[in-house]
């Protein structure tokens, strides 16, 4: 499921609105471990473009180490 979410986010990254919508859905679908992995990937991949959206989408996901 994590790879599917990454694929969708890559496909909608042209639109801030679509990116936010799909990121919020992805966070709901994934388990805690996958959420942490997705957050790291999103920051590395889209941090400079959508950093504020990423922070907002993950605001309720605790920061933890794997």
Short overview:
By secondary structure, the protein is mainly alpha-helical. The protein has three helices and no strands. Helices cover 77% and strands 0% of the residues.
What structural keywords apply?
66 residues, mainly alpha
Class per helix and strand makeup: mainly alpha
Radius of gyration: 11 Å
Tell me the number of helical segments per DSSP (H or I, 4 or more residues long).
3
Q: What letter string, H or E per element, gives the SSE order? A: HHH
Q: Assess the beta-strand content as a share of residues.
A: under 5%
Topology at a glance:
Elements: H1 2-12, H2 16-29, H3 32-57
Structural commentary:
The chain has 66 residues and is mainly alpha-helical. It has 3 helices and no strands. Helix 1 (2-12) packs antiparallel against helix 2 (16-29) and helix 2 (16-29) runs antiparallel to helix 3 (32-57). It is globular. The chain starts with a helix and ends in a 9-residue tail after the last helix. The model has no long low-confidence stretch (mean pLDDT 93).
């Amino acid at each position: 499921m994590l790879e599917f979410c990454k694929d969708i986010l890559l496909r909608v990254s042209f639109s801030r609105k679509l990116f936010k919508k799909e990121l919020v859905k992805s966070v709901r679908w994934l388990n805690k471990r996958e959420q942490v992995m997705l957050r790291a990937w999103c920051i590395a991949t889209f941090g400079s473009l959508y950093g504020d959206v990423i922070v907002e989408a993950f605001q309720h996901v605790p920061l933890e180490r794997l």
